[in-house]
Amino acid sequence: MLSKKALDMLEYNGYSMKNDESQISFNHSSTDMIGLMIVLILTFAVVVFLVSVQLFVGLGVAVLAFLIFLPIVKRSKGKFRLIIDKKNKSLSVKENDSTISKSFQFIDSIFIHSKFVDEYSSAFKSTSEEHRITIGLEMDNKKLIPIFKLISDHAKPSKEMNEVHDYIKSLIS
After folding, report:
1. CB atoms within 10 A of CB 92
2. For a Cys staple, 94 with which of 6, 81, 102, 143, CB 3.0–4.6 Å?
3. How far is it, in rounded angstroms, from Cα 59 to Cα 38?
């Protein structure tokens, strides 16, 4: 079972965990996507108003909004659910409209990978960097299926991220 800190880290990144006797499921909440859509709609309304009043100011605000929201939309995960069935030794990954179901025997390994995303300044973070830590499945046909996309201040995965990686690995082994 995962520690409280690991569950908090998953929750901070938008994931929730449900543990039954025979299966464990991880869901990515869509509440952040709802908030993003509301802000995008409001921004679009402001841009339309500014374009109708002052064309060049409106176009400038549209370009600025595009540059601000593009990385946020690209980082958004969408609907995601991972179901690990311990009894049948299989897992199912549902992302948006596609579903992948595999038996544990077709999974070669569980990988963890870090990728530099962006640099920013903040008084609340320990570094000025943002890294995406991806935990995923490497299938027997060498296909990589990401299951967790987590945000970190450091290139090296945290203790909690490693704990999630080890937990998934222990379930599938």
Report:
1. 15
2. 81
3. 21
Burial environment of residue 84 by CB neighbours within 10 A (0 to 12, 13 to 18, 19 or more): buried
Q: Given pLDDT bands bounded at 50, 70 and 90, which one contains residue 64? A: very high
Domain with 47, as residue range(s), is 33-74
Contact 16, 27 (CB under 8 A): yes
Pairing of strands 98-103, 90-95: antiparallel
Look up tokens 């409106």; give the residue. 58
HSE-CB at 46 with a 13 A cutoff on CA atoms is 13
Domain total in the chain: 2
Co-location of 24 and 37 in the same domain: no
The structure's pTM equals 0.72
Is 57 in the same domain as 115? no
